[in-house]
Every structure is written in C-alpha cells, then in structure tokens.
Amino acid sequence: MDCLQQPSGSFQQPTGDQLPPLEWIDSHAHLQGKPYAQDLIEVLAHSRATGVHTMLLPGTDLADSQTAVDLALRHPGQGLVVSVGVHPHDAKSLTPDGLSQLRELVLQHRSHPVVAIGEIGLDYHYDFSPRDVQRDVFRAQLELAQELDLPVIVHDREATADCLSVIAEVAAKRPLREIPGVFHCYSGSVETAVILLKMGFYLGFDGPITFKNARKALEVIASCPHDRLVLETDSPYLTPVPHRGHRNTPEYIPLIGAKVAEIWGCDLAEVAVQTTANARKLFGLS
Ligand SMILES: [Zn+2]
Fold first, then answer.
1. Is the dihedral of CA 138, 143, 144, 149 positive or negative?
2. Whole-structure pTM value
3. Residue 29 alpha carbon to ligand 1 centre in Å
4. Directed axis angle between helix 62-74 and helix 96-109, to 10°?
5. Which terminus of the chain has a smaller tally of CB atoms within 10 A, N or C?
6. What's the CATH code of the domain at 116?
C-alpha cells in the first residue's frame, strides 16, 4: 500500500462519536498465561474497544498450547486464534510422543482456532535447552508445519545463522510454502531481513521499537515492504512506551502501529489497514 506523504507520529485514534476505532490484529500475545488469569475478560474487552479485534495466542510448550486452544474455544467470538508449538527454551521437554500430541492438537482444531505452528526456533542468549536439542526440535516442528501446510512463528535470539541453516536443511528436502511464516519480534540486521523477505517470511515488530534506544529495528522497518510487516505485543512482555514497566496487553498495539506510521511517514489508519491485511494473509484468517 502506498503511503500518504504526511508524517503522522500522532498516537491518537479517531475518537469522534461517529468514527469507529481503527481495526488492528495483535499477532502475538500470550494471553493464556497467569498474568491474565484474574481479568482476561476485561483485557479482551479493552482490546476490542481499542480496535484490536483479533489476537493470536502462541504456545510455548505442549501444555501451554493446549491451554491456548482451550481458552480460544471457551471464548468464541472474541477473535482468539492460536499457534501451537514448543519454544526453544522448552525444547528439552519435547519427546517424540509430545510431537505426535502436537500434531493431534492441530488436526483436531485446524483453522479454528489453530492457524500456525509456534513459537519455535533457537535462543542462544539464554541457552535454557542444549543447542543441539533446540536445533532438533526446531527442525522437527518446521517439518510438522510443512506436513500440515501451516505457517510458522519463529523466535530467533542470537542464533540467526543456525536458524537459517536449519530452515535451509528442511527446505532442501521439501520446498517451503509460499508464505513460510514470520520472524517474530525481529531484531536482526537489514541484510538478514532481505534474505528472510526473499524466502517469503514476514517480520513482526513489538514494543521495543518505541524505546528511545531503538535503532536497528527502525532501519529494518524503513526498508521493509509494507505488505510484509505485522504488529505484535508479545504480551505480557515488551510493553511499549509510555506503559513500560507495566503488564503489556493487546490494547497497546496502536502505540506500536503509531511508531511504524512515523517511520513510514504515513497515516496511522494506513498502518492499521495494511498490517491487518498482512496478518490475515499470513495466517489465512478470514
Ligand atoms: Zn512470544
């Protein structure tokens, strides 16, 4: 989508009586976690009132994925969709039997509410699971996503070279789907972004782009094709300015969108329309 050449920077949504809020999608929010156990209904209501009508809950292990599925099924009509998967932190917990259960979970709930495999990937910052185990589990889940023809949500922290080589290994056996998935909370270089975009991946951006010290991500956003960027909060983590230090929620998505509008030099409404369309296409949402 072309941008109007008028810098916006404004965080304001249209709030006039006749104007409905802009529509947004939070493509990554861990709402099935404990921080929302007491007030999830309010969080969902506030998010929807802000225009965030669809929220994707990523699983981090088998039990968490099942919890996310149950939550989405318990709250129909709330715009909750789910990705199931085992995070690199928990890679050591995935047994062959667990992988079969993950497959079963998708087959039972495909399309509604399961729309992706994730979050999966490699995290060499914390190394909570041995690196060779992380690679094996990442590879197995990439293959599962290929088998089931679903996009993946990739978590890559300080492991880009190995992420790319595991993906290349899997792709050598069977070509990746046209939209292989998204690199969530993208924090890599412009050069790596070019490689990922060429492979068909989308890039996800979160609250840290609103932080004062953000630099690299802003360059990536400036050069990212507008039809390949999605917004995510990673709730309850990575709360954007000016709420930093508090629990994150999907209702802050417009704050992240406003930063993207500022970088792209376009209207907030265009970022809402474009990123919503992007998330819909990426996850096959209607
Ligand atoms: Zn996450």
1. positive
2. 0.93
3. 7
4. 20
5. C
6. 3.20.20.140
Instruction: Give the distance (Å) from ligand 1 centre to CA of residue 30.
Output: 7
Distance 175 CA to ligand 1 centre (A): 26
DSSP designation for 2: P
Does any domain span residue 17? no
What confidence tens digit (pLDDT) does each residue in 227-245 have? 999 999 999 999 999 999 9
Give the closest residue to 280 by CA, choosing from 116, 145, 39: 116
Ligand 1 center from residue 7 Cα (angstroms): 31
Residue 217, domain member (yes or no): yes
The crossing angle, in degrees rounded to 10, of helices 131-148 and 160-173 is: 40
How many angstroms is it from 83 CA to the middle of ligand 1?
A: 11
Spacing, Cα 17 to ligand 1 middle (Å): 35
Going 144 to 150 to 155 to 161, the CA torsion angle's sign is: positive
Ligand 1 midpoint to CA 185 (Å): 8
